[in-house]
Amino acid sequence: QVQLVESGGGLVQAGGSLRVSCSASGSIFSPDVMGWYRQAPGKQRELVASITSGGNTNYADSVKGRFTISRDNAKNTVYLQMTSLKPEDTADYYCNVLYFQRSGYPVRNYWGQGTQVTVSS
Question: How far is Cα 5 from Cα 120, in angstroms, rounded to an integer?
Answer without folding.
Answer: 25
